[in-house]
Amino acid sequence: MKRALSAAIALLLLAAPGQAAEHEVRMLNYGKDGGMVFEPAFVLAEPGDTVTFVPGNSGHFVQSYAVPDGAKAWKSTVDERFSVLLEQEGFYLYVCPPHLMMSMLGAIQVGRAGNIEDVKSRAAKLRPKLVMKGERLDAALAQIVED
Length: 147
Description:
Immunoglobulin-like, 4-stranded mixed sheet, about 150 residues, alpha/beta
């Protein structure tokens, strides 16, 4: 009986890493919401999930703008696929620097968004840089799922 229980526990522990999800975000010149977008613009993830940014058109890259405490900031290379492993819970805000003025931005929530006030403070500093489609920032912040 002990062997069977030990084997079952071992199988559960081995299966746990396989539970992590893979999310794909495309970087596009033109999407459902108009020009210069990340699609989808919002991802709801869990700790351990991976988000891969895929260039659908040339000239894009992704850079974190606000990340939770303890999370590592990231910056990809132009026109390259880029993956980020999301281990820290919180709300992540990211941008495409060359197209920031066109509000090419997106958000990821990993688990509980405990850093909401920090993200909102950073977003207020970002707002003046958004020349077109500034409502995308509001839409990203509106996606926050609170407990």
